[in-house]
Amino acid sequence: MSTWGRFFSMETSLRYRKNSLWMDGVSLRAIARAVGTPAYVYSARLVRERFLRFDRELRGCERLICYAMKANSNRALCGLLADLGAGAEVVSGGELRRALAAGFEARRVVFSGVGKTEEEIRRALRARILSIHLESAEEMARVAAVARGGRGPADISIRVNPGIEAGAHPHVATGRSGDKFGVPVTQAIEMYRRAFKDRRLRPVGIHCHLGSQITRVEPYARALRVISGILARIKTWGRRLDFVDLGGGMGIACGKNKIAGRRGTLLPRGARPGQELPLESLAENIREFARAWPRTKIILEPGRYLVADAGVLLTSVLYRKRMEGRTFAVVDAGMNDLARPALYGAAHPIAPASRPGRRRVALDVAGPVCESADVFGRRYRLPQPSPGEIWAILEAGAYGFSMSSQYNSRPRAAEILVEGGEFRVVRRRESWEDLVRLEKRYGEEK
Ligand SMILES: Cc1ncc(COP(=O)(O)O)c(C=O)c1O
Fold this sequence. Notes:
Blueprint (H helix, E strand, L loop, with lengths): L2 H9 L2 E4 L2 E4 L2 E2 H8 L3 E5 H14 L5 E6 L6 H9 L3 E4 L2 H10 L6 E3 L6 H10 L3 E4 L2 H11 L6 E6 L25 H13 L3 E7 L10 H19 L6 E3 L13 E2 L18 H14 L4 E4 L3 H4 L3 E13 L2 E6 L8 H5 L5 E3 L8 E6 L8 E8 L7 E4 L20 E6 L2 E6 L4 H5 L10
Parallel strand pairs: 1-12, 4-20, 5-6, 5-13, 6-7, 7-8, 8-9, 9-10, 10-11, 11-13, 15-17
Antiparallel strand pairs: 1-2, 2-3, 4-14, 14-15, 14-19, 16-19, 17-18, 20-21
Helix pairs in contact: 4-5, 6-7, 8-9, 9-10
The site of pyridoxal-5'-phosphate has 19 residues, from helix 11.
């Protein structure tokens, strides 16, 4: 492979060839023809490369990468990561069920979340996962009670909220004081003190997650200092923990052009491309920490970093609509398929699946859902579209399908995995029938 080829393969799975946009040797138009739209399409190769790169950066420390399944819990995608040796971070009994079904080893699964039910705790204990990450003193009491009479103590960690502003969007910032996640340092220490004396509990680690789409290393470095302080305190009791779980949140270069060989923005007007978190520098901080705490394993929980760039959402243009100086392109994917623009104001690049010419027009791209928030972005610079044309909404591999819903009674999209020059449906499109399958008609007996 040429140097350029290698460069592109690290960065992207997309390139224009023969007038069409291709993902790893498969034409996206061909996929849209075969399975229809909206459809999520994922590059298995890019997920694999992102994981291996992440893992490589951390060489030299004892580590476990627990993929945050909330980013994309498709079983095929998760299975691919499990095969590479990843663990999983789950936040519900449903995700635990999916993790085990996808092939993640139970001893590589950690369970976070502020509101675990008794049933979820019971299932986690029965599966003998690596750790239940506790988010409150009351939850600790609940886990201890459920573990009583079980097959030994519950392996637990405490999620500390270090009170750090990491620069994430307010909806996804989790490590500031006042956020609902974890417990403050003094409370964490008190909980460890009690947990070490409780025979129903076995403290195995410490957990911290600062938020999502973090692009600076400094908040992680600060969190490691806070954690060091807690470990030092625990050491004074003659105790230690097996691992430190620093959470996820590693940011990607949102909006950077990720189509091989192309220049220029694919973002709507006003949106600026972002910077990726410098992984090497994060890894350097982690190595320094590991030198101070040599027998302590490091766990990281990347979600977005591993899968965001690997996915696109294919959509068809339905209509053009001109009014009051604006042109809307109405597409068949909506906020029920990809909620991030409506939820966080996220700007996703859009690329036509047919190679665009030089002429561009300013388009507001809107979905069909009956909400004014159902707009992917204003003033994209795109070629004049014709109905039926296929577009790819990029960076849609994370928090895309997993956040999708049937809002407006719209069946959820199909999911496709591209690998080895072929594509495969890894979740079929929901049917109209699926929409009503679980419900009863008024007056219906059974
Ligand atoms: C506890 C925990 N770990 C990991 C993640 C993954 O975050 P990201 O996808 O930004 O890496 C999240 C996201 O919300 C989380 O809550």
